[in-house]
Amino acid sequence: MPERPQALFAMTAENVPLVFPPPVLARLRESVDIDPALVAEDFTDPVVAEVLARTEILVTGWGCPRLEAAVLDAAPKLRAVLHSAGSVKGLATPELWRRGVAVSSAAAANAVPVAEYTLAMILLAGKDLFAARDRLRTERAFPGWGLVPGIGNHGRRVGVIGASRIGRKVIELLRPFDLAVALTDPYVDEAGAAALGVALLPLDALLRTSDIVTIHAPETPETHHLVGARELALMRDGTVLINTARGGLLDHDALIAELRTARLSAILDVTDPEPLPTDSPLYDLPNAFITPHLAGSQGNEVARLGLAVAEEAERLWAGGELAYPVDPGVLEREA
User: Fold this and answer.
1) 271 near 244, Cβ under 8 Å?
2) Reduced to 3 states, what is the DSSP secondary structure of residue 286?
3) Whether residue 145 has pLDDT greater than 90
4) pTM for this structure?
5) What is the CB neighbour count within 10 angstroms for residue 46?
6) How far apart are CA 92 and CA 74, in angstroms?
7) Which residues are identified as catalytic?
8) 333: pLDDT confidence band, cut at 50, 70 and 90?
């Protein structure tokens, strides 16, 4: 095997032991020469600059400074950036690809807990669990063993907005269940939808026919307020809307107006703004279930991101190809 390449952490220092706990760090260090005590939060630091000059692989993460031309000039041997988080938009520049630097992201690993959260919410919403909990809390009386009409997950239609990594993972996780899944995405054709095993619908048709709608599109200028007053009005009574993507995809003023009619319900892990103002009606509306941006990697889940980087480093050391390369051509339409 070739000599291990020089690597350097570039992120917020406090995140290194969280994303790379001892077993994951040990695995990473089998294929790269990296010092966990040296973390680049400022590339102009003299100690950092000395190592950067001979660095072949940057292991980046939350808090990494932007990789502008001056930084790359100071790293003439750099050949790969392995990002231990999702989007690289905050750090990547076109100069990376112009210089032939390969870029990898752990976005696929970060998609797993978001999709798991979404699956859980879909199944719980189908049983009307949140409203049932509130009724039980208020009435303090068990309703008995009679059948509850109008609830259940057998044959319910789930509409997925966006075939992103997370959207595709949600579709995968939904396969074992007796649910009808539909997708809307302008970049997916009928053959692509068939490969995913879902029906492809225009947005309006998906909104009109779904019992549960879950948003997994990127936020771009074109998708800002993708779901607004007109779109919410298309949803039939009783529809549950889930958003784990970006708060700006959803017009919150329009949503609040609809929720006040009690016609729809919403499960929001992301909001606009974030956090919500303390006087936001969403905190108190009984048909709004708000969580504080917990769907993405949290707690022990962040080690999965470090593991994804360690595996990419192993591939590079063995002379292989990256499994999760970032395509600059599609980066602008990603989250």
Assistant:
1) no
2) coil
3) no
4) 0.92
5) 6
6) 16
7) 246, 274, 293
8) low
